[in-house]
């Protein structure tokens, strides 16, 4: 038996109450999922928009070169993205040199990873850990907050991201110094 509140919310269809016979939730769950494949269930969550660090919908980061772990122009993340490429950075010469020094060469093209190599002024989805390391070392890249995935906040405090937030200038000239 379940309460009417739990029954209307659908909770009892997933978890049996202590009064239900063991195994009854499995029968109910199977009924709810009948005819659905794992792929169709996964697509249900795909319909949810990715959020940025400001709480809004995630905006594109860059298309020239095309960035993102999934090479879709956005700093989306998922289980395959072990590095958490969630921060939309506008890279500077100082940031690129810092990344090279820590073993993350972002300048040399790597066609087998669809990576063209970056130049100052490019927008690129960088890993949260490497951006934070650059921040601590005084070499952080600029950040587009609306294009930075909310999962970056699991690694980097919002105050640090805000410290380097920019609107992208028409002429990236000052970024090359």
Topology overview:
Blueprint: H1 4-9, H2 24-33, H3 38-46, E1 87-90, H4 93-101, E2 123-126, H5 128-136, E3 142-143, H6 158-163
Antiparallel strand pairs: 1-2, 1-3
Give me a quick take on this structure.
The chain has 177 residues and is mainly α. The chain has 6 helices and 3 strands; from the N terminus they run αααβαβαβα. Mean pLDDT is 78; it is low at 1-45.
Beta percentage is 5-15%
Average pLDDT, all residues? 78
Computed over alpha carbons, the radius of gyration is 22 Å
User: How would you describe the shape?
Assistant: globular
Q: Helical percent range?
A: 25-40%
Largest sheet features: 3 strands, antiparallel
Low-confidence stretches: 1-45
Order of helices and strands: HHHEHEHEH
Total of DSSP H or I helical runs spanning 4+ residues? 6
Q: Say what the CATH topology of the largest domain is.
A: Phenylalanyl-tRNA Synthetase, Chain B, domain 1
Task: Determine the structural class based on helices, strands and strand pairing.
Answer: mainly alpha
How many discrete domains? 2
Q: Quick one: CATH class of the largest domain?
A: Alpha Beta
- Give the neighbour order of strands across the main sheet: 2-1-3
* CATH superfamily label of the largest domain: Protein of unknown function DUF2237
Measure the end-to-end span. 70 Å
CATH architecture of the largest domain: 2-Layer Sandwich
């Amino acid at each position: 038996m379940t309460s009417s509140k739990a029954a209307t919310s659908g909770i009892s269809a997933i978890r049996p109450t202590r009064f239900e016979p063991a195994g009854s939730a499995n029968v109910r769950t199977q009924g709810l999922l009948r005819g659905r494949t794992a792929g169709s269930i996964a697509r249900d969550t795909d319909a949810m928009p990715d959020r940025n660090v400001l709480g809004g919908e995630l905006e594109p980061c860059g298309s020239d070169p095309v960035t993102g772990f999934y090479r879709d122009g956005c700093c989306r993340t998922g289980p395959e993205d072990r590095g958490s490429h969630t921060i939309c950075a506008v890279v500077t010469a100082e940031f690129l040199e810092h990344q090279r020094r820590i073993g993350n060469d972002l300048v040399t093209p790597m066609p087998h990873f669809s990576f063209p190599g970056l130049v100052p002024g490019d927008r690129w989805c960088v890993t949260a850990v490497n951006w934070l390391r650059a921040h601590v070392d005084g070499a952080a890249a600029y950040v587009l907050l609306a294009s930075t995935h909310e999962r970056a906040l699991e690694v980097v405090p919002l105050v640090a991201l805000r410290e380097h937030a920019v609107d992208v200038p028409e002429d990236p000239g000052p970024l090359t110094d």
